[in-house]
Write a structure and sequence with these properties.
By secondary structure, the chain is α+β, with helices and mostly antiparallel strands. Helix content is 38%, strand content 13%. The strands form three sheets. It has a five-stranded mixed β-sheet with strand order 6-5-4-7-8, sandwiched between helices. The structure holds zinc ion.
């Protein structure tokens, strides 16, 4: 994972902004990232060397001849923000373990919150572009509820998801800030799968029935892997589906038995929830999928340096999401 070659090694946001001092530098850098020196016409896909124009290129394909810049067909198209601001946002969003709120991002970049919110969501949309993740060896599976209020984390999680999983101190702070009374979270079930020392997959699920959970596991985990779960009855079917299955009796307050535990996925839930409740304050069903993708992408690139992560996600900026789609 760590043998990614980066075009530009930086160690801090200061170095990043020093280097990307103007739009010209940013454009040249992004042309290198996106095209590796050979521009491709985004209108017709032609790889014939285009003509240089004042502001970019003109396709040299006779039937096309359209003008383009490196921003066409990317999340940067039709944005009035300089690439320098986008790049700084890319770095900030992917660098913070728990994520960053649009409020904070707006303050850090000196842009209004609405702009910051849009920017955050567009960047988030690119984070899901990763190819489907396949897990193997030892894989922990667990479901959780986002939002609502969740009770005792282990024993009551399915029967009484009525007490949010932030710490008492965090709740007190949120109350003091006047945030907590205004928050109304939809209660949403999420299934998480994580390979020990590997990647994580987290998906919103409509319910916790076997017919919902088992196909997701089969889609993302290789047969023959060892599945580690709690005592939830649905997981009892895993052996029939070609997996080894070890479970831990959370209802008996047993959480670790040798290598059998679900602590890795529980830790992921903890970071996710702290991020969602503490940083974002509110989430809706509509946006949860993007938040999940963001947290998974960040977790799955945890071994990369800031510079490697920045370039990896910049590569995915071709995935575009319009304002219309976003607010639909
Ligand atoms: Zn063309």
């Amino acid at each position: 994972m760590t043998n990614i070659k980066t075009l530009f090694k930086f160690k801090s946001v200061i170095e990043l902004l020093d280097y990307f001092k103007d739009e010209k530098t940013c454009i040249a850098f992004y042309e290198q990232i996106r095209w590796n020196g050979s521009p491709v016409c985004p209108h017709c896909g032609s790889t014939k060397t285009p003509y240089r124009t004042n502001r970019g290129f003109r396709c040299s394909e006779k039937l096309c001849t359209k003008k383009f810049t490196v921003k066409v067909g990317t999340i940067f198209e039709q944005s009035h923000l300089p690439l320098r601001t986008w790049f700084a946002a890319f770095y900030l969003i992917t660098a913070h373990k728990k994520g960053i709120s649009s409020l904070q991002l707006g303050r850090d970049l000196n842009i209004c919150q609405k702009t910051a919110w849009f920017l955050l969501h567009r960047i988030r949309e690119t984070l899901k572009a990763e190819s489907p993740v396949m897990l193997r060896n030892s894989v922990e599976v667990d479901e959780t509820y986002i939002g609502g209020v969740e009770g005792n984390k282990h024993a009551n999680k399915r029967t009484a998801p009525l007490y949010e999983s932030t710490t008492a101190k965090e709740r007190k702070d949120l109350k003091k800030e006047g945030v907590i009374d205004e928050i109304r979270w939809d209660k949403i079930a999420v299934l998480g799968l994580v390979e020990r020392d590997g990647k994580v997959v987290a998906k919103r699920i409509p319910d916790t029935k076997a017919a919902t959970i088992i196909p997701i596991i089969e889609k993302h985990v290789e047969k023959g892997s060892t599945m580690l779960t709690d005592e939830f009855y649905v997981y009892g079917q895993l052996e029939l589906k070609g997996y080894f299955h070890k479970s831990i009796q959370h209802n008996l307050k047993i959480y670790v038995q040798g290598q059998t535990h679900t602590n890795t996925i529980e830790n992921f839930w903890s970071v996710l929830k702290r991020g969602l409740y503490g940083v974002y304050h509110y989430t809706s069903k509509k946006h949860l999928d993007r938040y999940l993708d963001e947290f998974c992408a960040r977790y799955n690139s945890r071994d990369l340096t800031g510079a490697e992560r920045f370039e990896k996600f910049l590569h995915q900026a071709e995935n575009r999401l319009s304002w219309k789609e976003l607010v639909a």
